[in-house]
């Protein structure tokens, strides 16, 4: 159970955000809530005065005598006030609703912006691979949209209910303290029951949240475009559907149990509350018949019992909603205040333009403290102005090494230097600004061709010449030239684009190889960077295209510092230096000819691939 102090802190935080989202709106909303909370009791009091005034006039001929106390207003004044206040009370709900929606929109904007800014401040990748963080992030995304507004709405709802209850009790105490006591007594049993049930409901929702997350996961697999392909082919749709159904059944079962408990306890307690209220009514009617209370008092009592009961019911519902929202809001606060995942240098150093080279010195790395070592004491140099190739079997650690070069993670042991400067002493953003890359698992953005390419360097967004030059270097320009709207063509299956007349039209779907060229163009538009990383840049290309892209890249890489990873050894043979990695260690290093003469792993792999081609041509 989360502690009350923590929940109060979160509620204050949510209220502060609401205030920041719109001060005037918050104040107006508060006024509307206070008015809505107090007006019913004021109306009950006015009604009592009206009835008492009418009774006095009818029993004493208007001379003001008799057992009924003299009301503060004449019947006419009371009627006018009742009319005006009833009109105000009728107008308030839509106004309050409008103010609430306005606040909700402001808060959502603020909260979402803060959440996603906090997520973008995480510079490394490690957090995004922790299931616990991802779960929290998912809950925080949910919370970002709904929780603050729910917390605020619930807090204001509680305030309104509290005001209604206290103002009714105030009216009753003025008539008779005993009557106020009977009213409270009548609602107490139901109140305790609701409190206990609401706590159990919140706990149940919390316990069920892992199931709800799994339910969402299966749901997504059932309509996600990439997943649908496999679920159709492998026929796994029904299997996933069943799993989703089972999660839902379990959640429903827990809800059903609690609902049954609520009904079986609620019915007798509600009856008890009604009996106490009825006894109170009998008592007050008897007392009125004895002349101890006026008819106005009886009417105020009836209004107060109904008002207090319904307000308390509303208050409990609001408290339950607030409790649940505050639990979820905790995830938002955790994520938005998450510490940086990569240690920041106390006094960041400037990164000089690369002149000598990048060096890995005895670099050890594992993804988790309890995981296996992926890199085991790698020492190698990427010389300035030279092309280095990394070669090795699947899982050898090549991509991991590249991620360390970009400082997506820090080495567990050892260091990486840039002309002698440890890259941990430099701001990660400054380091990355010096690097361009095509990753093995590059991103396909549902954006236009031009935007997809300019994502490599946003200063070229809108610069048609630069975008086209990068596309030509990557060999995608001839394809783009055939697209209906050239570089403005949307590359998406899930979004439409609008033509000049505002009509929606389909975008273009690219092949894997075409996407790879777009990713290459994105890396190439990031020109004049110190280091170019190419992790399998041509794996999806046909043989002729691969040859063409590599010839192009060779010209592009001449005299610049680059790292190329490829399983096609024919494409790495021209590199100035080739490093062979096996099980996270460098086992061979040299030029293509040196390594072939050495007759080690590289020579074995190269001959294997070459013989494969030879066999194919021979047969
Ligand atoms: N994010 C990660 N978390 C945990 N382990 C990982 C992660 N990424 C990679 N690994 C593990 O690290 C090892 C090296 O993976 P890496 O991707 O660096 O190999 P690679 O040489 O690039 O392989 P390939 O040629 O298949 O691309 C593998 O055993 C892999 O399972």
UniProtKB/TrEMBL annotation:
Species per Swiss-Prot/TrEMBL record: Streptomyces massasporeus
Domain ABC transmembrane type-1: 27-316
SUPFAM superfamilies found in the cross-reference section: ABC transporter transmembrane region (SSF90123), P-loop containing nucleoside triphosphate hydrolases (SSF52540)
UniProt superkingdom: Bacteria
Gene Ontology MF term list: ATP binding
Keyword match ATP-binding: yes
Transmembrane segments: 27-51, 72-92, 166-193, 267-289
Protein name from the UniProt record: ABC transporter ATP-binding protein
